[in-house]
Amino acid sequence: MVFHLLLAMGVVGLVFGFAGLLPGLIAALLMGTLLVWVDVGRPRGELRGIHRGSGRGSGECDWTWRESPGSPWRSVRLECDYLGPWLVGLRLDGRRLWLWPDSSDRDALRALRRELVSLS
């Protein structure tokens, strides 16, 4: 979110500098509205896979989701429709989620990819 805010401030600054006060205020209003819209629509929570049957990597996993640490887990349907080297595209009950797994350690990332490739 901080990155988006900095980009929006840069755009507004350029509009102020080149177009003047009124277009700059309009750009600030539009960028602020866009940032709030993007932030409100973003799903937040935790996803958990529970293995059943023959173990890890078998594709037999029950996926659960919770909105916050105190809320109860609920069953969800998870699909992986893009599994790239730096970006993972998921559908959680039909909602689009993009995952940037680069902040994970190597073993956890390998285990995640093993589970997601069975969903592809």
> How many beta-strand runs?
6
Which word captures the global form? elongated
Mean pLDDT comes to 83
Main-sheet strand order equals: 1-2-3
Low-confidence segments: none
Distance between the termini: 29 Å
- Helix and strand composition category: alpha+beta
Ordered list of secondary-structure elements with their pairings:
Layout: H1 2-19, H2 21-41, E1 46-51, E2 61-66, E3 74-76, E4 78-83, E5 88-92, E6 95-99, H3 106-117
Antiparallel strand pairs: 1-2, 2-3, 4-5, 5-6
Give your account of this protein's structure.
- The protein is an alpha+beta fold.
- It folds into 2 domains: 2-41; 52-117, no CATH class.
- Helix content is 42%, strand content 26%.
- It contains 3 helices and 6 strands.
- It has helices at residues 2-19, 21-41, 106-117, and strands at 46-51, 61-66, 74-76, 78-83, 88-92, 95-99.
- It has a 3-stranded antiparallel sheet with strand order 1-2-3, with no helix packed on it.
- A hairpin with a 2-residue loop joins β5 (88-92) and β6.
- The longest helix has 21 residues, at 21-41.
- 2% of the residues are buried.
- The mean pLDDT is 83.
Entry summary:
This protein has 120 residues and is α+β, with helices and mostly antiparallel strands.
